[in-house]
Amino acid sequence: MIVKIALLVIFIATTIYIGYYSRKKATDVDGFVLGGRKVGPWMSAFAYGTSYFSAVVFIGYAGQFGWKYGLAAFWAGIGNALVGSLLAWFVLGRRTRIMTHHIKATTMPEFFGKRFDSQALRIVSALIIFVFLIPYTASVYNGLGRLFGMAFAIPYEWCVIAMAVVTCIYVVWGGYSATALNDTVQGIIMLVSIVAVIVSVLNGHGGFTQALISLANASDPTVPNGTVAGVFASMFGPDPLSLLGVVVLTSLGTWGLPQMVQKFYAIESESAITKGAIISTIFAIVVAGGSYFLGGFGRLFSDELDVTVNAAGVLVPAAGYDSIIPTMLSGLPDILIGIIVIMVLSASMSTLSSLVLTSSSTLTLDFIKPVFRKRMLDSEALAWMRVLLVVFVVISVVIALVQYNSSITFIAQLMGYSWGALAGSFIAPFLYGLYLKRSSKAAAWVCFAWGVGLTVVNMATGLAGHPLIDSPINCGAIAMVGALVIFPLVSLVTPSGMGKEHVEWCFSGYDERVLVKASEAIGDVEPQQPAAPAVPATGTASNSSIR
């Protein structure tokens, strides 16, 4: 216990000090929200990766989907790495950085407002973000609270409150710079810890080969193909179609989440995109892939989990899916449990800081300012963001505490609703807004209605006992894929709702001519040598083609 407490104290002290150290970089809105758009590849990549993966993935998703699909749950980690990280960086990264810088957009709602020339779109999207980030934040608290209960025997309520206080301190102090720097430290901890955890858990069951044999002998008549020999150790598991829904939601969802794409706004240079993509992809393979891989062996702990058949006729752990990973870890040495706690704390705090910063900045800049305080000064905006940050944390803590004793017992449900509504509403307007000049304002409104409407209807029918779509995960996946089809179709049959000059102005940032090194951009035309001293000693040239 002394070792675990010592590790925890060191981690919290370091986190708070980084917040204090970064306070000088958070003196204006741009610095507080985006770190002055001068965040390098390593910090950008770790900020992206650690915001992506939290206790929700490690405790909730890895446990639930590892139990349902066995080792095939690893496909979710592969999808997170290739689609949610690598492809997201290359498809969205560069164009997001260029257009948002050109039209001077600091948040996703501000992007919608300026790209589609609509203040109403900006305000409504800000409200959607504020409302639907709350259940996601509550789910993060849920996962961490359960792990702390296992490691320290501390009541869930105190775990949640303590975590909220620490997060508030360093984000209020240092804003995005503190978040990005902490994310780097926390990301390194996560990489080392997940490998140690997997090795230790498998060694406790005779090593990888023996654990795989034991898993192949597991059976469950309550799931599709659950009695087929070796199905939980197979490549696609017992229910490939449902697994596909998980992969789509957790991988494609990042493309429409404001706290994720906002990381691209802050990219410093062209080279940071390629490096950031590679780093974040490797990070995702290790952390997400490792988490789902570990969860895939959950059925080896059935005796300790006290499994039972629930009201839906499904074999589940008596304490719920969220108890699977804590049970798997409970028998490990104290020093390793201490490291695991720090790992999950790192993952959770990095995600929380991103969520609360996104929510508070969005509500201030995209709702309060345009609606109530059009002439808001920078100092006022900073004050509002810091106050609302605390308010958002308090609300999400209350939701987490209420949810802990409610009928919504699985972390995955909360995250599924949140991601489904947000990504279902925003993924298409954001993606097509970056690439398609023919995008229409009406199509953006339809996608907002589609994402929120489908999620709310499914939640309401679920509470009534007859959900429209059985799984919130599948509902979120359908919302996202549907939006990608709906947006271009609506754009084809509706007027753009914007002047041609406005659209051309939005896209003109891509055509700006910049000076780059020949090693970064080989051209067919011989470069003209400028007459000295056209390039001063300080250098007007840049090693980046992003301005």
Helices and strands, with pairings:
Layout: H1 2-21, H2 29-34, H3 41-52, H4 55-69, H5 74-102, H6 108-115, H7 119-152, H8 156-203, H9 208-216, H10 240-252, H11 258-265, H12 270-295, H13 302-305, E1 307-309, E2 315-317, H14 324-329, H15 334-371, H16 378-404, H17 411-435, H18 441-463, H19 472-493, H20 500-507
Antiparallel strand pairs: 1-2
What does this structure look like?
- This protein is mainly alpha-helical and 547 residues long.
- It has helices spanning 2-21, 29-34, 41-52, 55-69, 74-102, 108-115, 119-152, 156-203, 208-216, 240-252, 258-265, 270-295, 302-305, 324-329, 334-371, 378-404, 411-435, 441-463, 472-493, 500-507, and strands at residues 307-309, 315-317.
- It is built from 20 helices and 2 strands.
- A two-stranded antiparallel sheet has the order 1-2.
- α3 (41-52) crosses α8 (156-203), α3 crosses α15 and α17 runs parallel beside α19.
- It is globular and about 65 Å long.
- The termini are far apart.
